[in-house]
Amino acid sequence: MGSRYTRTLRLFWGASIAAEMEYRLNFLLAAITSLGNLVGSLFALSLFYNNGMDLGGWRWEEAIVVMGLAVFMEGFTSTFLRPNVGRIVQHVREGTLDFVLLKPIDTQFWLSLRNLSLWGVPNLLYGVLVVIYGGRCLGLALSDFARGVIPLLIGLVVLYCIWFMLSTMSIWFVKVHNLTGLLRGLLEAGRYPTPAYPAAYQIVFTFVIPVTFLTTVPAAAIVGRNSASIWAALTLAGVLCLLSRAFWRLAMRFYSSASS
Amino acid sequence: MNKRWRKFVTLVAASHAEMSEYRVELVLWILSSIMPFVLMGLWMKASHNAGGSLGPVGFARYFLAVFVIRQLTLVWVIYEFEEDVVKGRLSARLLHPIDPGWRYLASHLGERIARFPFLIGVCAAFFVLYPAAFWLPGPADAGRAFAALVAAFALRFLMQYAFAMVAFWSERANAIEDLWFFMYLFLSGFIAPLDLFPDSVRRVAELTPFPYLVYMPARILIGQQVDLTKGFLVMAVWGTGFWFLYRRLWKTGLKRYSAMGA
Fold this sequence. Notes:
Chain A is mostly helical. Chain A contains 13 helices and no strands. In chain A, 72% of the residues lie in helices and 0% in strands. The model of chain A has no long low-confidence stretch (mean pLDDT 86). Chain B is mainly alpha-helical. At the A-B interface, helix 2 and helix 10 of A face helix 2, helix 3 and helix 9 of B.
């Protein structure tokens, strides 16, 4: 059973990469744009520290680690989420979801992992480099970076679940893509450590849209700061996983295809 | 001239009516550009402990102004134009007895009028939530801000329309816009007021058109001093350059253009 899924996945991704290779120039442009964005974001961050302010008591090098993780998350989003989960809305609107449902494989699996886009790869790379740079400035050892791996994986799961649940809503509300715009704006907030925000914002970023678990919690684990515990993060990820699966099942009971 | 003006006003009215059909979408669209409010939170908290040039209330007003300016100067003509070229719809528009540019401009203005009431609503809600930041620009400032906003919108439209002409040669003209946009994002004052920038960066930025698209109108709105002459002068220089670029690309591009499926 398991091997069937891994074999399918290899075929999916092989085909995706072959298709992407057609657009090498675009890839180069994306790499340049990502680099420009990274420089700009670091510049924006430096404005706080150059004007004698700080971000919720976090040092410059620590804030850089948060920024690096946010860039990494952005790369993950454009590599895995946008070309898959981001297209659910389109499948629902155009009725092509019917064909996906007929395939002899789990629908959530197909919808979540069918495609792979290389556009996010520069950001994945830049993110890792920035985290390593920030960590080295703080004199962190390899074991310190290792402490961040599990919180980072949890963050990826949380991000996936939020995207998937939001896209599932398109079964009821076809024009949900405006909502993903709202979500993107909120996730941008993850570029800065959560304690840098006023109290009301912190509540929203922790309990309503758990942005803090995407970047601040893994960064805190790497630089050795106190933050929400790993058990809270793990519980949240578990609950979101079950919830998104249940929500998808529920949505399927209401799905009645396009134009019928 | 009078006749062309009447045509243009009719086009604006038609596109306003069209946009009013999609009111819910419009609200969601406004809400999706909440980035200024996120940045507002950051700067308010940071300046609370350390002072800074504006202080928490000043930053709140600045970023509210940025939000409003951004909403009023949104431009997406490159995406519309690119689709029209790729799908061949431009052919029909070329047959109309009016330059296609007017039609795109009209659709932007009509949408702007439909958007305006919701913007007032967002501002009112903001002042209810945070009454300490309440202020209204005086009539003189409002007049100056209006002039600056009209100029900013016109320049942004012209720049993007000039880039849109690249669609005659390439199917992905908007890649240029993406590159241009991130410079706009970081140099226009969208992320922070320019007086917080290091001097060398600010001096370079002031030669580009970007600071006059967001930072200058925002300063006027929150009642700070600005060098209007310099602002309009820089915008005029860039505007002239982009005008000639647009005319040039339009003329050569049109010769190249052979409609889809024709």
